[in-house]
From TrEMBL:
Transmembrane segments: none annotated. The keyword Ribonucleoprotein does not apply. Residues 26-57 form the Galectin domain. GO terms for molecular function: carbohydrate binding. Keywords: Lectin. This is Galectin domain-containing protein. The keyword Nuclease does not apply.
């Protein structure tokens, strides 16, 4: 299975959602999308044998 990126905007969200990103994934949060009280959900798996896991906001 090859890695690919799909971006779509489901009706319940106001900002795009990225699914199945290339690894490592580098992306940006759209300007103005994060305000006080915003919820950012990061979901995924860390491969067995990994020595670290990191994300920067």
């Amino acid at each position: 299975m090859s890695a690919y990126t799909t971006t779509y905007t489901p009706p319940s969200f106001q900002t795009p959602v990225t699914t199945r990103p290339m690894i490592p994934h580098f992306g940006t949060i759209p300007s103005g999308a994060v305000t006080p009280g915003s919820l950012i959900i990061i979901k995924g798996r860390v491969p067995n044998g990994s020595r670290r896991f990191e994300f920067n906001l």
